[in-house]
Write a structure and sequence with these properties.
Number of strands: 2
Shape: globular
Helix content: 55-70%
Mean pLDDT: 89
CATH architecture of the domain at 51-131: Orthogonal Bundle
Largest sheet: 2 strands, antiparallel
Structural class: mainly alpha
CATH topology of the domain at 51-131: Arc Repressor Mutant, subunit A
CATH class of the domain at 51-131: Mainly Alpha
């Protein structure tokens, strides 16, 4: 004999949602997605002997000619002490050169070496392929919308 089932209780709010605002939920999802993507990128960059901050600096150097360490620090949102360590490691591996500024020797200018350009090109291609894969579950329109919304948020925070 089959026992009649009890009437189901009303659905409980998910523990994640609770009484959180859409802004808080968006932040949680953004943070979780970022952390997962960042881990995937770090794994890919390891095969090139790079960390994410080193990759960021090489990308910055590809867009500018001989910036100072202070300029790089500002552009990458990294404090000067951490940037100095990043530059030290990239210099030891022959990917960048740190050259005293000819006009003001208190400053060092950072230049990417030819080897650094080669490593960056290969690493960038790998990361771009990964990102195409990661965002492949979204349509082109959804990717454009996400780009627009995150760009607007970034601009509003400046």
């Amino acid at each position: 004999m089959v026992m009649p089932s009890k009437p189901s209780a009303p659905a409980k709010p998910s523990p994640e949602r609770g009484s959180r605002s859409p802004a808080v939920l968006a932040w949680i999802h953004l943070l979780r997605a970022y952390m997962k993507i960042d881990r995937l990128i770090e794994q890919r960059l390891r095969s090139f002997g790079l960390t994410h901050p080193q990759f960021g600096l090489l990308n910055q150097l590809s867009r500018s000619h001989g910036p100072t360490q202070q300029e790089c620090s500002h552009a990458l949102y990294v404090d000067k002490a951490n940037l100095s360590g990043i530059v030290d490691r990239l210099s030891r591996t022959g990917l960048v050169d740190r050259i005293p500024d000819p006009v003001d020797r208190r400053y060092n200018r950072i230049y990417m070496t030819p080897r650094g350009r080669d490593v960056l090109a290969a690493a960038r291609a790998e990361v771009e392929a990964l990102l195409r894969e990661v965002f492949g579950g979204l349509s082109s329109e959804e990717q454009e919308r996400l780009h627009h919304l995150l760009g607007r948020l970034h601009k509003d925070l400046e």
